[in-house]
Design goal:
Blueprint lengths: L1 H5 L20 H9 L3 E7 L8 H5 L8 E8 L2 H11 L4 H5 L3 H10 L4 E4 L6 H17 L4 H9 L1
Parallel strand pairs: 1-2, 2-3
Helix pairs in contact: 7-8
Amino acid sequence: QEILEKYRDLLTLQWEGVTGSMCAPSQDEWEQLLTNCSAFLFYGMERFMSHVLLNWLVAMNIPKCRLVILLDLVQSQQSYQRITNSDIHKSCLRVALERPTETAMLLSLTGVGSVLATQWYTSSEEHAERLETLFENLLSFGKTTGQTVHILQK
């Protein structure tokens, strides 16, 4: 929330989304957010694909979305328990499709121009640092996505 407040003036006037942990977006809300955006940021616990229905995502056509940033793969005891309980009811193939590379491929097939995603589990503090670096370089300094990724790799 602090990072969003810090960069509020640099964000577009059409900034829409869901913040907080009070409730999870419905599939309709996910669809509306993804289809009506030019850039999409997911900053949350566990795998992004564990929050959306696979059948719903692969049927989507979202070419207006030029960039998806997935800052997922953060675990807490509560989120780990939720995802474990959810994964029990999924096939091995379905769980495999929720991995970062597969998620990026699925999003690309729906028309997303670029996907920037974490590749392994990390702490919420490290994610906050990544988000700060992303916003600083993309919004404050006007760097390209590629330049920003290069900075994140250092």
